Amino acid sequence: MKKYLLIGCFISLLMLGFSCKNEEPIEPDPSDNLAIDSIVPEKRTIVVWEEIDIKVYTRGTGLSYLWSTNHGTLIGQDSVTVRYWACPTCTGLNTIECKVSNEYGTVSDTVMIKVL
Amino acid sequence: MKLILLFILCAFCSQQLMAQCCSAGNPVAGSGFESSSAKGEWQVSSAMKYSLSDQYYYHDIKIENPYILKSSFLYQNLWSSYSISNRISVSAEAGYFYDKSQKLSLNNEPFKLGASGIGDMAVAVKVIAIKKVKPVTQLAFSAGTKIPVGAFHQSVNGITIPVSLQPSSGAVKWTGTASFQRLSANQDWGFASQANLELSSEINKDFLVYRYGPFLRTNAGVMHRVLPKINMSVFGVFDWRGKDTREFDQVVTGTGSYSFLIQPWIQVAFRSDRILFFNFECPVYRYFNGELLGNKMAAQMGFRASFNTCKKKEHS
Predict the structure, then answer these.
(1) In the predicted model, is pLDDT for residue B21 greater than 50?
(2) Mean pLDDT over all residues of chain A?
(3) pLDDT tens-digit series, residues B22-61
(4) Are the CB atoms for B91 and B31 separated by under 8 Å?
(5) Which of A90, B60, B158, B269 is found 20 to 30 A from A100 (Cα to Cα)?
(6) How far is the CA of A83 from the CAs of A49, A66, B101, in angstroms?
(7) What is the rounded CA–CA span in Å between residue A101 and residue A35?
């Protein structure tokens, strides 16, 4: 009986030890404060005047967005989605950039759309 | 004589404010004929221009476009010139777009996209090569540059406005102008002609690599004094615009055009050095290398005044 009691105490101490380790604070990944995971266009090749939606997937809080393109027109749909279309003088491989900012700084990413 | 001269000068100066519907930057600026070049003379003018475009063209044929309903701008410039000598003057011009926008149709619902802000700044030097008094005859050359000091990254609700709707062109440009004018002996009639060439540097900023095509404007017109303080003039204008290029010197599809315009003018002189002017712009024919929005009309009204600092000093 005494033997079983000692083993029980030993296991309890081990469990207590492991549980103390689990209570240590987990350091968050810095990219959780501000990051762009991806920019996803509906299509990567379109024809003139065709409209597509482009969505940005981000991490972080209090984010503000700034979209821009070198050729074509962007119209805001909601905070993370824009609509893109291109006129006849915008044919070629065009770049769409999204800058995301909050208190931690600014990050940006791009996606290329080919306009035929 | 000075009154007649100013009429013509005024006409020339204001013609420089012409525009194409959807090009970035100031409505075509330039240099030349800003001053009668009496030493020590300051000239100041301000003009407001409205331009409307609502028709798409493929080459010279009207085509339907369900996406862009209209494109327009309202622009005001401030121009100033100082004559260093009787033959040399320097000038500067800046302007502000109160509204430069397009009305779009998205999912059959109208949507306005545009911006406002300061345009490019233009500076020029003019040299009068030939100057005769009887009959009044003048041949002048000028050279200048346009500096993109204005707004080029305007955004609305987190979306950057397209380059074509930005108030500034974003590119440094160089201009050269040759101009000629001659009045009849009784100064009731006058003839004037001008050629203006504009070359653009390459924009290379962020992801935008772009060079506007060369632009040439030539015009010729006659002026007639209908009343002692009112004159009317008509100018024929020919515009040629070369092809734009983007990265790796790729030609931008569809760019490049030429057009013929008629410009009727009315100028009213309250005094010999205070002139009010009106102008209307009517495109007669245009040809685009591709599918582009063409200008429908433009109207302009402005005021011009001149002061001679040397004369004041002499009087005092």
Answers:
(1) no
(2) 86
(3) 455 566 433 333 445 688 899 999 999 999 999 899 999 9
(4) yes
(5) A90
(6) 12, 13, 18
(7) 9
Give the pLDDT mean for B204-229. 92
Q: How confident is the model at residue B271 (pLDDT cuts 50, 70, 90)?
A: confident
Q: Position B26: which residue type?
A: N
Taking one residue from A and the other from B, the number of pairs with CB-CB distance under 8 angstroms is 71
- Chosen from B152, B245, B246 to mutate, greatest number of chain A CBs within 10 A: B246
Mark yes or no for CB contact A69/B155 under 8 Å: no
The rounded distance, in Å, linking the Cα atoms of B171 and B148 is 6
Q: Which residues of A57-71 are buried (b: 16+ CB within 10 A; e: fewer)?
A: ebebeebebbbbbbb
C-alpha distances out from residue B278 to B6, B42, B53, B230, B234, Å: 14, 22, 20, 11, 12
Measured from the Cβ of residue A101, the count of other Cβ atoms closer than 10 Å reads 16
Q: A92-102 and B291-294: which strand pairing?
A: unpaired
| Listed residue (A81, A114, A93, A48) closest to B68, CA to CA | A48
Kindly report the nearest CA distance between residue A72 and chain B, in angstroms. 7
**Does A64 sit within 8 Å of B158, measured CB to CB?**
yes
Report pLDDT for B16. 39
Please name the member of A51, A67, A89 whose beta carbon is closest to the beta carbon of B158. Answer: A67
| CB atoms B111 and A75 under 8 Å | yes
pTM of the predicted structure, to 2 decimals: 0.84
Q: pLDDT-based confidence at B308, cuts 50/70/90?
A: confident
